[in-house]
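Hey, quick one: can you model this chain's 3D structure?
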Amino acid sequence: MEQTFLMIKPDGVQRGLIGDIVSRLERKGLQLTAAKFMRLDRKLAEAHYAEHAGRPYYDPLIAFITSGPVFAMVWRGDGVIALTRALIGKTDALQAAPGTIRSDYAVHTNFNLIHGSDSAENAEREIKLYFTQEELVDYEHTIQRWI
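Sure thing. Here's the predicted structure for all 147 residues.
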């Protein structure tokens, strides 16, 4: 079964949206296997956003993601990467489909509430940045047979 990394960014935490976002993912039938409320230091933020280094928005991106606490998570499910990307919506809130997290809650591209891995390779890399193997909880998600 596929897994992915999601992170509620500082704007989502500050706006009190952790519960609403987690609830949407749970209601979809996805399985939460790890979660951590934390504050990123610059080193972790730079590792997370390494692919954007050198771009004009890189420094503001690092400043934003380190500006407050985040809620890092690992979710598991069939096609979970594509599914969570669809639930999250496009980066630009104005282009996000109605009913997506970003359409419903985000106002600006710079404050778009949540990060989601865009590929299996990035999911694996990001999960390893934030969680040890021991922190990933493997358990039977009994509703899987009903989904």
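One thing worth noting: Residues 72 and 130 are 7 Å apart (CA to CA).
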